[in-house]
Write a structure and sequence with these properties.
The chain has 249 residues and is mainly alpha-helical. The chain has one domain. The chain has nine helices and no strands. α2 crosses α5, α2 runs parallel beside α9 and α5 runs antiparallel to α6. The longest helix has 34 residues.
Length: 249
């Protein structure tokens, strides 16, 4: 097992590099407002496919490796149910305090879900690195390839929900800081955390966001061309995450 200050420095550097991916949405500032608007719904569709693919092809299978199907399903249901209750509370708070909360609850859920996902990812990748540096590096590359479409999609969801682009970038970056935090915790605790249960729980969060909040946006398209485009981007997100899962195996 790798240990010591060098391992900590490598884990910290990897975490910060991963966090920089959260700023990829800033590339859209070079586009005209009209083109940005046209990109929003495809990005939402891409986010839905990426979230669903991440949950089904990456996170849930990892949970099933060390948990019984019933235990993994229970963690998944707990994650799904928690976000259902959280969204209900956010919607109630939004309707009763409109001046305090002026954005759609899905934006907050995306940030919370992304923060949890990044935290679990930081834990898992750092733990893998501590056991086998080569395997940890491969896991980091796979996670980076996964994060790129997801962060683009998350940025689109935040802007679509009423956030200003600068605020969306800033808060997306802040939510990404949980990745290096998870890596630091893995280094401190030497991989003794119940990662499979946390991964399955986070998969439930992602399933809820994709199915409850993002897929309805795809279904709301009014023209055949827009509907086909959204379904195509959704399928692209699923396919990309499936290909990454196949590459990992």
């Amino acid at each position: 097992m790798v240990a010591g200050l060098n391992a900590l420095l490598i884990i910290a550097a990897g975490g910060l590099l991963m966090n920089l991916i959260t700023l990829v949405g800033g590339l859209t500032v070079f586009l005209s407002p009209r083109r940005q608007e046209r990109l929003l719904l495809p990005l939402i569709a891409l986010a839905a496919g990426s979230l669903l693919g991440g949950a089904l092809f990456h996170m849930l299978p990892q949970g099933l490796v060390a948990l019984t199907p019933l235990a993994a399903g229970s963690c998944l249901a707990a994650g799904f149910s928690l976000f259902l209750g959280l969204e209900q509370w956010l919607r109630w708070h939004h309707s009763h305090h409109p001046r305090v909360n002026t954005v759609q609850p899905v934006a907050l859920l995306v940030l919370l879900g992304d923060a949890l996902h990044n935290f679990v990812g930081g834990l898992g990748i750092a733990s893998t690195f501590l056991i086998n540096p080569a395997a940890g590096a491969a896991a980091w590359l796979a996670a980076a390839a996964h994060e790129l479409p997801q962060e683009l999609g998350d940025y689109g969801v935040l802007v679509h929900s009423g956030w200003r682009p600068a605020d969306a970038l800033r808060w997306n970056f802040i939510s990404g800081l949980t990745f290096p935090l998870g890596g630091l915790l893995a280094w401190l605790l030497a991989g003794s955390l119940p990662l499979p249960a946390l991964v399955a729980f986070a998969a439930g969060n992602f399933l809820y966001i994709a199915a409850s909040d993002l897929v309805p946006e795809i279904k709301a398209q009014t023209t055949a061309r827009e509907a086909a485009q959204s379904v195509g981007w959704f399928a692209a997100g699923l396919l990309l995450l499936w290909l990454l899962a196949m590459a990992e195996h």
